[in-house]
């Protein structure tokens, strides 16, 4: 197990280096000159050349990537071309919104999806199962930003129960801050809960026909108790795989949902940086989000190996 863990960590490090190279090169190939953006189109050529030299834009792309990667490893992503402050400070401010939003959305998706999938698998073909199938199909078909607009219309505009958008900040109190994240977290969670419901239902129905489950029922356990105690643990591997992939969808969905609800998170920062051609900020945000997806999926793989010895490759 120790050897497997070491191999996974080394592989993760190599993958993150490759991801950083791909992110840097992809944004470096975009048309436009950051120096020209900072100085404007009327800048003199000598002034433009001096700023390019100061920013290191006149160096080969490989050297610039190595310098950027070295700075990223120490938390230095450079200075934002738009805000004129360190990008690491901007990201830290926005993470205070995006991270709780993603955690709330994932927790809600897990609670709704797993409960609905279990209830559906408990009585296949019954009313609960049919309702769960409809929920899964509808949830996967409707985009999360449309769900967000619908939630604003119903719970903010019509009923007035929740704020329509904005973030008061954690200084205003934990209750007020979390309250402003309820609707966007719900908008992010519902499509992912639909996917989890479908996967959990299929995995539990597959284990329902296994011999160990029939043996548990023969020993006196009810169908529900046997499914919960013995079926659910064996259905975890495919569910964990989907949870790992869902983190990427939550991050991608946050870009739209944060703009719908006017939340000052990483998604809104990425959108603003793209609109203003702030490539320094955009590179840092893209690297952070990509690294987060890679690390979460690697962690899910390790958890799967831990709970299912069959997934361990021979040392």
Automatic annotation (TrEMBL):
InterPro entries: BPD_transp_1_N, MetI-like, MetI-like_sf
Transmembrane listed as a keyword: yes
Residue ranges constituting the ABC transmembrane type-1 domain according to the UniProt record: 95-300
Source taxon at top rank: Bacteria
Transmembrane region(s): 9-30, 95-119, 131-155, 167-190, 239-262, 282-307
Protein location: Cell membrane
Main location: membrane
Keywords carried by this UniProt record: Cell membrane, Membrane, Transmembrane, Transmembrane helix, Transport
Membrane-related topology note: Multi-pass membrane protein
GO molecular function: dipeptide transmembrane transporter activity
Any Pfam family matching the protein: BPD_transp_1_N
Gene Ontology CC: one annotated term: plasma membrane
PANTHER family given in the database record: DIPEPTIDE TRANSPORT SYSTEM PERMEASE PROTEIN DPPB-RELATED
Protein family membership: Belongs to the binding-protein-dependent transport system permease family.
Listed name of the protein: ABC transporter permease
Taxonomic source organism: Aureimonas flava
């Amino acid at each position: 197990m120790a050897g497997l863990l070491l191999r996974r960590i080394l592989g993760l490090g190599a993958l993150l280096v490759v991801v950083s190279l791909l992110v840097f090169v992809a944004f470096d190939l975009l048309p436009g000159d950051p120096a020209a953006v900072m100085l404007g189109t009327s800048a003199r050529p000598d002034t433009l050349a001096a700023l390019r030299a100061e920013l290191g834009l006149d160096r080969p792309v490989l050297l610039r990537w190595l310098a950027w990667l070295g700075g990223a490893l120490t938390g230095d992503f450079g200075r934002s071309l738009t805000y004129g402050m360190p990008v690491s400070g901007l990201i830290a401010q926005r993470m205070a919104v995006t991270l709780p939003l993603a955690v709330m959305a994932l927790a809600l998706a897990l609670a709704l999806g797993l409960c609905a999938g279990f209830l559906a698998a408990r009585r296949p073909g019954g009313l609960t199962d049919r309702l769960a199938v409809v929920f899964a199909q509808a949830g996967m078909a409707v985009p999360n930003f449309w769900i967000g607009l619908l939630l604003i219309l119903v719970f903010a505009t019509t009923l007035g129960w929740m704020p329509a958008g904005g973030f008061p900040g954690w200084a205003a109190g934990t209750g007020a801050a979390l309250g402003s994240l309820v609707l966007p977290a719900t908008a992010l969670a519902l499509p992912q809960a639909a996917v989890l419901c479908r996967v959990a239902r299929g995995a539990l129905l597959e284990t329902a026909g296994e011999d160990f489950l029939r043996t548990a029922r023969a020993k006196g356990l009810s169908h529900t108790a046997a499914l919960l105690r013995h079926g659910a643990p064996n259905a975890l591997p495919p569910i964990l795989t989907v949870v790992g992939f869902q983190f990427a969808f939550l991050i991608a969905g946050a870009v739209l949902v944060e703009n719908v609800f006017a939340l000052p998170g990483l998604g809104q920062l990425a959108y603003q940086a793209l609109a203003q051609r702030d490539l320094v900020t955009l590179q840092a945000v893209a690297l952070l989000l990509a690294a987060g997806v890679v690390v979460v999926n690697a962690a899910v793989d390790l958890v799967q190996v831990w709970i299912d010895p069959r997934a361990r490759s021979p040392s």
